[in-house]
From TrEMBL:
Keyword Signal: yes
Source organism of this protein record: Pontibacter ummariensis
GO MF annotation: an example: siderophore uptake transmembrane transporter activity
Upper lineage: Bacteria, Pseudomonadati, Bacteroidota, Cytophagia, Cytophagales
Gene Ontology terms describing biological process: siderophore transmembrane transport
Protein name: TonB-dependent Receptor Plug Domain
């Protein structure tokens, strides 16, 4: 690692020490963990407040840890978390001490459930804006395609998030592309989160504990993408008792086992899921499909061990793969991630987490025909290190700082032919890169009503060999020279400062206004001519000819709760301007192109909009309604005559309605309805003939719109009545996808009319009509 980078890190550490205020001797620190009482899982973002000191409190971090520095005395501590019963504890603080808390979940009942007795409301009082937190139980209550609960499809039902298309798991946030979303699973990046060509995501809800999406105001400890951060945390495993859960669905089955290794000290979780379409192929009498392959599987595993009060280890991994093929072709793709984390308490106020990270995404496809036999492989692989610190300066100030480094290795494409094939060998230019960052931020409560969160991130990126760089003629088309670089030899370096600032002002106990600004830099780019999350896209690094993408976003919002926090409401507006945005020339050839930079153009982009959100979280009927008014466009010299044009995923209006109703103690109903105006598309507007061939004449870039999209999904769940003597619980869920059989356009293609060959006609294709599904779920 370069010396200036280390010096910068030491400088930030010194700045942290200088920032520490002198603390009066009569103050002492109370710290500990807040956990789920039934499983021992740490609760992320639980609230710890002091009844005698209004406005004094703290939230737990990603591992359930909290720290409060208070004057000596006697206090009543209130521990609360959404969906759990608030716990009250009396404590006499004469010296620093450790105090853990275990919360009990609220039981489902017909009467209205009070989620929390605290006055403080998360929506109004937290610093976070442009942020979505979702409970996994809430996601599981939503109607699902073919019975598969999907985290990514759940966030697509929220304001500011657009779907990539019918059935796909890709998503766009506030005008950003699919590649501008950073997806983390236990801190490891996931480069392609799709199964079955995008119809499902790779996240098995049975293995997930926490889901959080940042659309703006991204914390300084995260970077590398322009638009959003989807932070997903896996369960740690039940440290109290053996727990088994699973389900049998229309296309897949799943099983999760978690148990203590050493009670209250070490536990594990193992969760698997697999589809079985290939099993039915094998039972078919049709020889054409009998040997076909079509399935995916997931495996999540995690182990944690508490060494002592100050040290804890976590090891987690995810392994997933898709397989599809027949006698004539094959394709497979998958992700593998692994993290090793060490939590350490230097003191009751200084918490550290050190993480080693591995992430791998690869795919392969090919032909099995002898004359055209080949295998095409591609891969991106990461090795990373994070060293993060949280210092609880006081109840009014929480400091975060740390160091991050990632080594990227890229293999864009390698084609190997079979022994009797006419296909040629081909290997595109492989390369590697080193990405690093330092960051420092502070959440500071200035007054009882005003809180600031300010921070700075310093990032760097170095593109390295082995590799080669072409030198081109003035038209930037024909190479005239080639520079060869050896392993780890620097090709090109970039870097920059990424300031972050958020502010919150509480108007009263039930409302607040918030504002944020953040700059983000993105050094990796996805090369794709598709809007869906296809696995066969290629990631490339910033290089000699491809500059890092840059985005600045400002946002402001009004947050208001009603009827004793039964309803949460918010209105947010945002504006984002982007530089070095990549797009493709007309008729670009990006498939297996060794000189891909000659097909790329760069320009600027802007996105702005307003998001409206109303959520009900108490009572028999819960859910939310959202509406987004948005616009995103790009201006790239050389495209569309230099005029601004909308992006494919630009949708002016979108709305969502999600409802859940507890009809009885055993029966719950769910419904979700989504609407969006059609995405932009380029269409042929004429044609001409030349040398006996017909060629199309196209409209302006994305000058037309697909038909509007809307769909209604329904579900009903029957859960067998529970009693205190019964350890085995089970339920049946019936889901209906696309209940009123809307034929939404998946794509539109053009062909000569069969009736009149002088005319061209548009043909709409769609994927799904009404799809019912039935799943059986159990746990004990």
């Amino acid at each position: 690692m370069r010396l200036p980078f280390v010096k910068g890190y030491v400088g930030l550490l010194l700045l942290c020490l200088l920032a520490l205020p002198s603390l009066a001797q009569e103050k002492v620190t109370l710290s500990g963990y807040v956990k789920d009482g039934s499983s021992g899982e740490g609760l992320i973002g639980a609230s710890v407040s002091v009844q005698e000191l209004p406005g004094v409190g703290v939230g737990t971090n990603e591992y359930g840890f909290y720290s409060l520095t208070l004057p000596k005395g006697s206090y009543t501590l209130l521990y609360s978390y959404l969906g759990y019963v608030t716990l009250s504890k009396e404590v006499v603080l004469a010296a620093g001490q450790k105090l853990d808390a275990e919360l009990s979940q609220n039981a489902t009942a017909l009467q209205e459930v009070e989620i929390s007795t605290r006055k403080e409301d998360e929506n109004v009082r937290s610093m976070e804006m442009s942020t979505l937190k979702m409970q996994v139980a809430e996601i599981k209550g939503m109607p699902a395609l073919l019975g598969e609960v999907d985290i990514v499809k759940a966030i697509q039902m929220t304001p500011g998030v657009q779907t990539a298309g019918e059935g796909t798991s890709g998503f766009y946030v506030r005008g950003g592309g699919v590649d501008q979303n950073l997806i983390l699973l236990d801190e490891a990046p996931v480069y392609n989160a799709s199964h079955l060509m995008g119809f499902f995501s790779v996240f098995n809800a049975d293995a997930i504990k926490d889901v959080q999406l940042y659309k703006g105001g991204i914390p300084a400890q995260h970077g590398g993408r322009l638009s959003s951060l989807l932070d997903i945390r896996m369960k740690e495993g039940n440290s109290k008792k053996l727990a088994v859960s699973g389900g049998i669905g229309t296309i897949s089955s799943r099983l999760t086992v978690e148990a203590p290794i050493i009670e209250d000290k070490s536990s594990f979780i193992l969760s698997g899921r697999r589809t079985y379409a290939d099993v039915f192929f094998g039972l078919s009498g049709d020889e054409n499909i009998k040997d076909n392959q079509l399935y995916f599987y997931d495996l999540n595993a995690k182990v944690n061990y508490t060494l002592n009060e100050k040290n804890r280890l976590f090891v987690s991994g995810y392994f997933g793969r898709d397989m599809a093929g027949s006698k004539s072709f094959m394709m497979d793709w998958g992700n593998a991630t692994a993290t090793l984390r060490w939590n350490h308490l230097f003191s009751d106020r200084l918490f550290s987490n050190t993480t080693l990270i591995f992430s791998d995404f690869d795919y392969a496809l090919g032909s099995r025909e002898k004359e055209s036999e080949f295998t095409w492989k591609s891969r991106i692989r990461d090795y990373g290190l994070k060293n993060d610190y949280t210092y609880f300066l006081s109840p009014n100030s929480q400091l975060r700082f740390g160091l991050q480094a990632t080594y990227h290795n890229f293999m864009p494409a390698e084609v190997k032919p079979g022994p009797e094939s006419y296909v040629n060998n081909l290997k595109l230019n492989s390369t590697s890169a080193l990405e690093g960052a330092l960051y420092l931020s502070n959440e500071h409560r200035i007054t009882d009503r005003l809180t600031l969160d300010y921070g700075l991130r310093l990032s760097s990126f170095t593109n390295m060999g082995p590799g080669k760089v072409y030198t081109y003629d003035e038209a930037f088309e024909t190479p005239i020279d080639t520079l060869e670089y050896g392993r780890f030899e620097k090709i090109k370096s970039y870097g920059g400062l990424e300031p972050r600032l958020s502010a919150k002002y509480e108007l009263n106990d039930m409302s607040s206004i918030k504002a944020s600004y953040n700059r983000t830099l993105q050094y990796l780019h996805l090369v794709s001519n598709s809007t869906s999350s296809l696995p066969f896209d290629v990631w490339i690094p910033s290089s000699t000819y491809v500059k890092p993408q840059v985005a600045d976003q400002v946002a402001a919002g009004y947050f208001r709760n009603f009827k004793d926090n039964t309803y949460e409401g918010s209105v947010e507006v945002y504006y984002k301007w982007m530089d070095n945005q990549i797009d493709y020339k007309d008729y670009a050839e990006i498939f297996l192109n060794e000189r891909l930079e000659t097909e790329l153009l760069t320009g600027t982009g802007e996105a702005y909009g307003a998001e409206f959100y109303l959520r009900k979280q108490k009572g028999l009927l819960t859910g939310w309604v959202s509406y987004t008014l948005a616009k995103t466009e790009r201006t790239v010299p050389g495209i569309n005559g230099g005029k601004a044009y909308p992006l494919r995923y630009d949708r002016r209006h979108s709305g969502n309605l999600v409802l859940a109703y507890q009809f009885s103690p055993s029966i719950s109903l769910g419904a979700s309805w989504t609407y969006a105006t059609g995405g932009a598309i380029t269409m042929p507007v004429g044609r001409y003939e030349y040398n006996g061939k017909t060629y199309p004449v196209y409209s302006e870039r994305n000058g037309y719109r697909l038909p509007d999209y809307h769909r209604l999904d329904l579900s009903a769940t029957y859960e067998k009545p529970k009693n205190e003597f019964k350890k085995y619980n089970s339920s049946w869920t019936l889901s209906v996808y696309n209940a009123y059989n809307r034929k939404n356009a998946f794509s539109i293609y053009f062909r000569e009319s069969e009736d009149d060959r002088t005319r061209t006609e548009a043909v709409k294709t769609y994927l799904f009509g009404i799809i019912p599904s039935l799943s059986y779920n159990f746990n004990f």
